[in-house]
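The aim of this short unit is practical: by the end, you should be able to scan a pair of folded records and say something sensible about each. We start with the first protein, listed as its amino acid sequence and then its structure tokens.
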Amino acid sequence: MENRTNIDIQDRTFKFGVRIIKFVDKLPHTLSATEIGKQLLKSGTSIAANMEEANGAESKSDFIHKVSIAYKEARETRLWLGLIKAAILPDATEVGELHTECDEIVRILFAILRKARSTRANPRQ
């Protein structure tokens, strides 16, 4: 199921995961930042892991399922970044940059899903 778009998004989500790891390590050591950081670390790194699984999918349905999970994780990651920006680090530029990148990843994954679902429904596309 691997093609050029999947390779590009895999690389992008991998790099995003690395940025999330480094960002979480810089969060303040408060109860809220620690708990949200744990959630952010799980969801933010899960995106690339699920895209890796999607690239090795055994069928179109399996591919769609794995990308769907990556999409949900990206949406969750976007939420955690929004909460950090609103309540923990409102003036941190890095949070805004990560939020913007995450939003773009969400949109890309949605487009991949939409295309995959439409070609499953109409194989001639």
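Turning to the second protein, read its sequence before its tokens, just as you did above.
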Amino acid sequence: MRFSLLDRITDLQEGKCITAAKILRADEDYLADHFPRFPVMPGVLMLEAMFQAGAWLVRQTEGFANSCVVLKEARNVQYKGFVEPGQELVVTAEITKQNELLTTLKAQGNVDGVLAVRAKLVLESFSISDRYPVRVAADEYGNQKHRAEFSRLLGEGA
């Protein structure tokens, strides 16, 4: 299942940092089961939103050279607040270290300017065909889908 936990990218400085946003809608499926009397965005999805923002920064920084960006590690994850329906989670991620395979980022999510979550993330990027040479078409398909989603998040063509 593919899903996007970001509505838009509001700022991106290639090789440096990204800011993205997610408005939590009251009709999101998981809210029916995640504390029905006190619906809030699950912490793991807040972490996923930070990862997704970081992945877009890595993809753009690498010129979409790799079809896969995966979360390798999440360190020092701290939850400080909730995201309730109608609120906007503003996610920032900043590259602190990067080499050919791994990117380390400082990431955080704020609601109304107040820290809700923060973590240090390590992302790994690679192409499927590097590991499975017969799967070159998977890289092409993946990169095409990523570029289309990236354009949507940037609001291009809207």
